[in-house]
Amino acid sequence: MSEARDSLYAAVDWDLDCDVLVVGSGGGALTGAYTAAREGLRVIVVEATEYLGGTTAYSGGGMWFPCNPVLRRAGDDDTIDDALAYFHAVVGDRTPAELQEAFVTGGAPLVEYLEADSAIEFQILPWPDYFGNAPHARPTGRHIIPAALPAARLGEQSGLLRPPLATDRAGAEAPDELGGGQALIGRLLLALTQFPHAQVRVNATCLELIRLGGRVVGAVVATREGQRRVRARRGVLVAAGGFERNDAMRKAHGVPGSARDSMSPPGNCGLAMEAAVLVGADTDLMSEAWWTPGLTHPDGTSTFSLWFTGGIFVNDEGGRFTNESAPYDRAGRAVLREMESGRITLPYWLVYDNRMGGQPPLLFTGVPLADHQEYVDAGLWHSADTLAQLADRIGVPTDALVETVDRFNGFVATGKDDEFDRGGEAFDTSVPGSPNPLVPIVEPPFYAAAFGVSDLGTKGGLKTDASARVLGKDGAVIPGLYAAGNSMAAVSGTVYPGGGNPIGAAMVFAHLAALDMASDRA
Fold first, then answer.
1. What DSSP string runs through 7-55?
2. What's the pTM?
């Protein structure tokens, strides 16, 4: 076997040599790289941009890992059977059962594996499951985050870490203490770089995968010094995010929205995914993304918006169309359905009253807000003394908007939203400092803020088996090729079961990929 493989390698003039080539540098990629290095394999990580961290570095860093040691130490009484039953009840048969089982059962042993390294620490952040009425949903979730990390611990490597979103896009001052996804990337980077046989390279873009004799044996990587052929003796792990920042690919695969409204770094253009398709890889879920309503800003972007403390969304007809406090992917999908039906032409509007002095009633907008007047000047925020006047200013039917607000205020008075059950699930009432999502709209002047559609990345990608081995169009494994994260067709299918699902799945399948490459089977 090794002689045959060596003959394949001899057919190419290689510039670099490793056991495992990892394409990407987010939470999944670095978990895979760390696992491979810890198992004794020589690793090269290539990142297309100047910074490490991918979308994870912009995120809260949450991980959905049922029954993991961190939760267990705090007295968690969940069971894997219950977690798997919940996950399958929500996802259904859209993805293979063995893939779902690999994810749900894989988180706890991964946490145990990672906690053996002193560089990696976790803590609990209660975060309700996103389908609170599904069987075996947990009102406090199955969710952990990385422990905060002083930025100084990274030393010279701190310059490689992608800044947080507020810094990268809005110029906010970088914090001295890393939290969320920043801490996760920082900790994984500290753990990985203790191994002398692991290399990390930025400004290195995977252009092409090299497949010889049916096996992926390496890749062509563009660097500032020119193209380099990288030999990967055990395999290539594609964990380079989705293609949400590539408008041409979005259009080709029918992904709604725009690249400018995605909450991911500019390097997430799907190049490595396309390279895999060119060597025979199959794909799935290519029209899907992790959706969210997005507050629209004066620069034209719409960004991830979370934790509404009041207000209602209205469509072009002046009517409500969703539970505004629902988990963001569910709310985002409601927006898309309204767009498909013709009842929304962007923007749609969040209507609210004066109890916050004109500021939209939400706690998180992805990036810092611009000055209030800039939104007004851009036609994005409107105010009026009456709801009838406000309706005229945002172009919706007057009678409909007045009736919609009156009906909602009636629900507030009774304490039950009979239209969309706002407040009926644990997530609805998890807003920090504002557990009651039913807030009346009664104090003039009245306001409307423009919203669009944002996403946290596409979730369609390369089809894999339960070991993250990429499958060809014939359903057979492509030897030497693995995928994880948003480069892999999501194990969650067309839904978002719980906070930390994207990063958690990325880490689990990257870990499984590395273990497979370290095994005799590779």
1. HHHTTS--SEEEEEEEE--SHHHHHHHHHHHHTT--EEEE-SSSSB-GG
2. 0.97
